[in-house]
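Supplementary Note 2. Why include the ligand at all?

Several targets in our set were suspected to adopt different conformations when bound, so apo predictions alone were not considered sufficient. For every target with a known small-molecule partner we therefore ran a joint prediction. The input for iron/sulfur cluster is given below.
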Amino acid sequence: MEIGGLQKLTLIDYPRKIACTVFLTGCNFLCPWCYAREFVLPEEIKKQPKISEKEFFQFLKERKGLLEGVVLCGGEPTIHHKLPTFIKKIKKMNYLVKLDTNGSNPKMMGKLISEKLIDYVAMDVKLPKERYSQVFSKNAKIKDIEESIKILKKGKVDYEFRTTIVPTIHKKEDIIKIVRWIKPAKRYFLQNFRPEKTIDPFFETIKPYPESYLLEIQKIIAPFFEACQVR
Ligand code: SF4
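The joint prediction is reproduced in token form.
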């Protein structure tokens, strides 16, 4: 596995757990507003110092008893066929594992859930169903995204859906359409966009929505979820 980055401590990436975050390189989507381009764009990935698996597992060994979980994000972790083997090694050390995913690989997600390799999944629902092909052309197969939503809603693993809300991409109506698609569900989070080193530099120039706009949407959609918050 190519590890492009390691955040040694996070109190916010894994709900109610003290964790570290591992950034796996490569992604099958190219969200223009993505601010993880150093883990997505091949020319940027090349420039990143890498962390070997050996170093990573040594780090986990040293943090036993201090950290409770490992967050796998990227990039898109599920594009790596060696992911189950990598997670098995983490689970053997008795860590909880959270997967952050764009939902494009339901087969891999299903396997990880049925083999009890993951304890929590955060899945991005980026757009209303009918707009995926418009933004991602061939990269996002809507039937795969739908399948991932269905798998999570079966409740065999703890989960959340989330959307990063980007001015010029999302309006209130888009979020309502997403909610109609995924409801009812356990948790749904509205995340405000951060204009930082984005894949398309245009997005570095735009202002995030004021929090009050997101709170206004949250009030409308909250009844469809057990938990729904702006963060
Ligand atoms: S936002 Fe996520 S899915 Fe989109 S390009 Fe970045 S890492 Fe990939």
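Helices lie at 42-47, 53-62, 83-92, 106-114, 132-136, 142-153, 172-182, 211-221. The first strand starts at residue 3 and ends at 10. Comparable summaries for the other entries are listed in the accompanying table.
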